[in-house]
């Protein structure tokens, strides 16, 4: 396993702000299988892993982007790589244009991975599987758990830009709403709390946290931590595209570990949804458990990631295998 690095990341990761209002039965997770490409492209998973590793060595922040891609792709209807589609005038509006996609980047490196796979096996490995497998490998690069992930997803030939905000609420929504959305795709309370642990890595733009600092400091914030945040975000009206940001986890900012939960218990939750995990009696026991046992956190995180990655995939003759992850084949 690669040693986790302390790279600066380009933007935060609302990784999981989260799920579905409706449950669309586009496909079944049990239609996926381990080693799906063992006959059609035996080296596919190794190629993806090699590319993820090379990108991590050059740009450590890509590992965080792969996790966020998984959440944003799988939460909006299906794990089908719709999040990767670019706008095509008169035909497709990209999901990346949604306010909920603010700060997402490194999409160009998905194409780096896809190009490497295409050279080995043209039109065989889906972009949807690349999204899932790159997240799996990125988690490992960040010191997270090893996850055995199934494959066999196919790619959507349409974007769902008009409904992204229906599926992925704002970062200040209530924890009860967050829990109900995850439950709608089969992820329980413990799994939801574990998935929010992805906030252990990455950073938040000031525009998304100043409401806890101005005009008065949120009383649930540790005073010293609030001073740190004010130092990072010195104005209540920051430039949305500015470079100022704050980290959820200053101790191990690029390691996917349980320091996030320890910080929550110390009233150092960065976003409203983070701190609600402590104030809500439904989620608090899991915060305590994860803060105490990093191995247990990793186990539950892996379980929840698998459930997420198998949410309504396109399989069989549904969708297509895109040649270029940015465009449907007909383009």
Labels describing this entry:
single chain, mainly alpha, Peroxidase, domain 2
Q: Classify the fold: give the CATH topology of the domain at 189-302.
A: Peroxidase, domain 2
Helix content: 25-40%
Low-confidence stretches: 5-27
Give me the count of strands: 2
Q: Which percent range describes the beta-strand content? A: under 5%
Mean residue pLDDT: 88
Shape: globular
Gyration radius, rounded: 19 Å
What is the succession of H and E elements?
HHHHHHHEHEHHHH
Name of the CATH first level of the domain at 189-302: Mainly Alpha
Number of helices: 12
Largest sheet: 2 strands, antiparallel
- The CATH homologous superfamily of the domain at 189-302 is named Peroxidase, domain 2
Gross CATH architecture of the domain at 189-302: Orthogonal Bundle
Span between termini: 39 Å
The largest sheet has its strands arranged as 1-2
The chain-level structural class is mainly alpha
Tell me about this structure.
This protein is an all-alpha fold. The protein has a domain at 189-302: Peroxidase, domain 2 (Orthogonal Bundle), CATH 1.10.420.10. The chain is built from 12 helices and 2 strands, in the order αααααααβαβαααα. It has helices at residues 44-58, 62-75, 107-120, 127-141, 164-167, 175-183, 189-196, 223-232, 259-265, 272-279, 284-292, 294-309, and strands at 203-205, 245-247. α7 (189-196) crosses α12 (294-309). It starts with 43 loop residues before the first helix and ends in a 22-residue tail after the last helix.
């Amino acid at each position: 396993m690669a040693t986790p690095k302390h790279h600066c990341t380009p933007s935060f990761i609302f990784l999981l702000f989260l799920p579905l209002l409706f449950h669309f039965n586009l496909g079944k997770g049990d239609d996926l299988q381990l080693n799906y490409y063992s006959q059609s492209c035996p080296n596919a998973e190794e190629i993806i892993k090699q590319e993820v590793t090379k990108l991590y060595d050059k740009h450590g922040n890509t590992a965080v982007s792969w996790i966020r891609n998984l959440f944003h792709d799988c939460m909006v209807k299906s794990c089908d790589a719709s999040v990767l589609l670019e706008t095509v005038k008169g035909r497709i509006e990209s999901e990346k244009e949604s306010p909920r996609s603010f700060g997402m980047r490194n999409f160009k490196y998905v194409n780096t991975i896809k190009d490497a796979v295409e050279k080995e096996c043209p039109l065989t490995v889906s972009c949807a599987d690349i999204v899932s497998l790159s997240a799996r490998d990125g988690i490992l690069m960040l010191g997270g758990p090893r996850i055995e992930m199934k494959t066999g997803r196919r790619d959507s030939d349409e974007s769902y830009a008009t409904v992204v905000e229906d599926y992925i609420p704002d970062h200040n929504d209530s924890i009860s709403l967050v829990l109900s959305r995850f439950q709608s795709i089969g992820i329980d309370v413990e799994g939801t709390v574990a998935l929010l642990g992805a906030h252990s890595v990455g950073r938040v733009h000031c525009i998304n946290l100043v409401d806890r600092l101005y005009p008065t400091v949120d009383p649930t914030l540790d005073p010293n931590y609030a001073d740190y945040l004010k130092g990072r975000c010195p104005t209540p009206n920051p430039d949305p595209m500015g470079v100022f940001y704050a980290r959820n986890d200053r101790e191990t900012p690029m390691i996917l570990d349980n320091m996030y939960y320890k910080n929550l218990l110390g009233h150092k939750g960065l976003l409203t949804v983070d701190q609600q995990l402590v104030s809500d009696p439904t989620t608090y026991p899991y915060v305590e458990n994860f803060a105490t046992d990093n191995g247990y956190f990793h186990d539950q995180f892996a379980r929840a990631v698998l459930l997420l990655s198998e949410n309504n995939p396109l399989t069989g003759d549904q969708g297509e295998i895109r040649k270029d992850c940015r465009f449907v084949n007909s383009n």
